[in-house]
Write a structure and sequence with these properties.
heterodimer; A: about 140 residues; mainly beta; OB fold (Dihydrolipoamide Acetyltransferase, E2P); five-stranded antiparallel β-sheet; three-stranded antiparallel β-sheet; 1 helix; disordered N terminus; B: about 375 residues; alpha/beta; Peroxisomal Thiolase, Chain A, domain 1; two-stranded antiparallel sheet; 11 helices; globular
């Protein structure tokens, strides 16, 4: 079992997501926007699911949102999260609409659906910055 | 009449751990049992539909070779839940592609120590945050149900506890130890609010079904169990993301399947809801109209679904207590109940049964079975 990762890290070179991770590295939350109809694409996609347009550009997101749901992992269900448990996975309803999966950082007090949250960029490995979220009190 | 096809043979291996046997070995063992149950020879089969397991076994070309049969029609479905295989078989028969279809599934995922701690949809954008294993999305969905409707953990526990009560009446079930609400609530969380008994345990086993055209059932000695109605729906556009976690696409399946079968939810004598986690059961009780929207918690606490209740649910113990077989054993049990073969767990005068399932957060399906043609 030694070939299993000790940490679950994204591929930074995978073309669809590369722009997102590069923006995170620079502490900006960004998503694809259809250059033809303006729809936000989250998760990133090769075609616009609204108009099937193929051209895209990155647009800035506010970095704010509200908690859509949360779940607290108390057991490691993958070798890559052994060091992280316990941790709280979030689904955040971003101000712009998309639902983004993330993890809570900071205090759990006040964690409930509908609570406001904001992005906190966290370096987790060389070249890898994750957009975690903290509660806004 | 409504029914054009009927189940005339079922087979299931013992469930649990089968070290040294492959998924295909287990599928073939179940096939032998199903052919015997249907009282036919393998050469009487003119259709073969297999279900590909997580480890890549269960491909029609290989199973056909192992069985030494060359049916007129064969296909492999690449994903689980028995509904999809069953519907394809019924469609093949209705289209005249085959008259008698053998379906099978086998897996050795437990003895090969297959990990289910895998990332869920859009893995690179979810796994780095720790969203691994189906228990994660299930817990996220349950948290929302609790928030929206006030569902309590003790109410939710009635799913795992009720199915365990049924499993105690099923010698084939892997988990048969008594489980009370209090014992359930005292267990540690896996992914809060889910505990170990709320999530299926991986197991090895095989199952097989023989489906034939309704005008051919007289060739088989056991009571024929008709497919009265079947329906599917998808949420492919959601890509498996969080908007699908609450499985709203199931509601359309309910509207279609009850209409096609000509029955209502109140007429279901035995209900089978495929349960990788207990959350799926909570959702589907509401989506199919067995209780009102948001009312599954109080409904479960009234113990309708327990032995002796008026809505027997997963009377085999389901995947939470019997075995993890992608719903194939739910169908096997539904057929046994409608045949009246279930001994101490037999539902009195069961005439109509329903099997509901979903494939991740992308597809849902249901089948209504009956003793009438």
């Amino acid at each position: 079992m030694t070939d299993l990762p000790v940490q679950l890290l994204p591929s930074l070179s995978e073309p669809l997501n590369a722009g997102f991770w590069a923006a995170c590295r620079q502490r900006r939350l960004e998503a694809q926007e259809c250059a033809e109809c303006g729809a936000i694409r989250w998760p990133p996609a090769r075609l616009c699911p609204s108009c099937l347009g193929a051209t895209t550009r990155m647009r800035a997101l506010s970095g704010g949102g509200t908690i859509w749901s949360h779940a607290r992992y108390e057991r490691a269900l993958h070798p890559g999260v052994v060091a992280a448990v316990p941790y709280v996975v979030l689904v955040v309803a971003l101000d712009e609409g998309p639902l983004m999966v993330s993890r809570l950082t900071g205090d759990e007090a006040g964690l409930e659906i509908g609570a406001p949250a904001r992005v906190v960029f966290t370096d987790v490995a060389p070249g890898v910055t994750l957009p975690l979220f903290e509660l806004v009190h | 009449m409504r029914a054009r096809t009927a189940v005339v043979g079922i087979g299931a291996t013992s469930q649990g751990e089968h070290a040294g046997l492959s998924g295909d070995d287990l599928a073939i063992e179940a096939v032998k049992l199903a052919l015997s149950d249907a009282a036919i020879d393998k050469l009487d089969i003119d259709g073969l539909i297999t279900c590909r397991s997580n480890s890549g076994q269960g491909v029609d070309t290989k199973i056909g070779e192992l069985l030494g049969i060359s049916p007129s029609y064969s296909a492999t479905l690449d994903y689980g839940t028995c509904n999809f295989s069953l519907h394809l078989a019924a469609m093949a028969i209705a289209a005249g592609m085959a008259e008698t279809v053998l379906l099978c599934y086998g897996t050795n995922q437990r003895s090969e120590r297959r990990s289910f701690g895998v990332p869920v949809a859009a893995g690179d954008l979810t796994a780095p945050f720790g969203l691994v294993h189906v228990a994660g999305p299930a817990a996220l969905a349950l948290t929302r149900h609790q928030h929206l409707y006030g569902t309590t953990e003790a109410q939710f526990a009635h799913i795992a506890v009720g199915q365990r009560a049924w499993a105690q009446l099923n010698p084939q079930a892997i988990f048969r130890d008594p489980l009370s609400i209090e014992e359930h609530q005292a267990m540690p969380y896996l992914v809060r609010p889910l505990r170990r008994p709320d999530v299926t345990m991986i197991s090895d086993g095989g199952a097989a079904i023989v489906l034939t055209a309704s005008d051919r059932v007289d060739a088989h000695p056991k009571p024929a169990i008709s497919i009265l109605g079947m329906a599917q729906n998808t949420a492919l556009a959601l890509g498996g993301g969080p908007l699908g976690y609450e499985r709203d696409m199931v509601r359309a399946v309910g509207e279609r399947v009850f209409e096609r079968a000509g029955v209502t939810a109140r007429e279901i004598d035995a209900l089978y809801i495929q349960d990788p986690t207990a959350v799926w059961v909570l959702q589907m009780l509401e989506h199919y109209g067995f209780c009102g929207p948001g009312e599954a918690g109080p409904f479960l606490a009234e113990r309708h679904t327990f032995p002796g209740g008026d809505l027997p649910l997963n009377t085999n113990g389901g995947q939470l207590s019997e075995a993890y077989m992608w719903g194939w054993l739910h169908v096997v049990e539904a057929v046994r109940q409608l045949r009246g073969e279930c001994g101490p767990r037999q539902v009195h005068a069961a005439r109509v049964a329903m099997y509901c399932s979903s494939m991740t957060f992308m597809k849902a399906a249901a089948t209504i079975f009956g003793t009438d043609a």
